[in-house]
Amino acid sequence: MALIEKRPLLAMLAALILGFVIGLFIFGWWLTPVEYTGAGPQDMLPEYQQSYIRALADLYAFDGNQTRVQEALRIWPEADQAACQMAQETGDPADATRLQAVAIILNGVGCEAAPPAAEEETGGGTNSLLLICGLGLVLAILVGAILLLMQRRGGGEQMRSGSGFGATGEMPAGGPQLESAMGEVQATPVARFRTTYNRGHDSYDDSFSIENASGEFLGECGVGISESIGMDAPRNATALEVWLFDKNDIRTVTKVLMSDHAFFDEALKAKLAPKGEPVLARQGETVVLETASLIINAVIVDLAYGMDEGLPEESYFERLTVELSAWAKEGDFGGPDIEGKVDELLNF
Description:
Strand content: 25-35%
Shape: elongated
Mean pLDDT: 77
Number of domains: 3
Order of helices and strands: HHHHHHHEEEEEEHHEEEEH
Distance between the termini: 41 Å
Number of strands: 10
């Protein structure tokens, strides 16, 4: 579950390789190996079939042994037709006479009454097997992709349904099951914050302290200007960063809300990449930030772009409102206890 959510392409590739190994080695080589029995001249490639018939014709012209010709071509019903077609296509009269003699031995009348030779479907069984295997592989990939998409969509809907608040704006009483990058965890609602950026607020950097019901400090979260374009005053914010600090984690998680212009500008996107994961800002979008013991759902509840003839369209925000919902995980956080480490060093 965790591998699928963290690295879906890697999980799909692993499933594909596993399916290939099972199909080829276990089924193809062990349980149901392909066995070839009763092969004859009719199973050879056309050029080898012609060489075989011509060799028999030359041998018959040398020793006149009809029984040998009949035995050699007994399991090939269309051999007389093939010999007649070769006699028609050859430019050597002597060769044509020898081939017609083979046809007479096989059908008793020669080439005059023999129907035209049908094209041999050489390797038909092999081609059919390859086609079936190819279709099975494509079907397995499609089924895996559909299951993966359904899994990811189900996880996203579960996160959204459990991360908001009730219709009255109050937090639910119990902690929902949240599907996070670490798997399914039990989380408890802690707080909700709302912050709005308006153009002209050049020093915009809103932060909030996250505490549990007993007043214990858990961490901080906030939103601030990450990048601006155009003139310096007032600043035209083209990207805002949402961040989460957890006292039980050594890292601060950051995601960058980018304007439409910034998100599709590769140079600007590369410049902002070190600050955090880029996200295209859209109204109603939910951005999830997760640390060892905290989860933040940042919902863009309002967004408006500014208009300036000197700047690209939809390149900076006139207004952007974000609602931050904080949840505290319960149980083993899986991250280092920073305060405990400090106390341990001081008491050493």
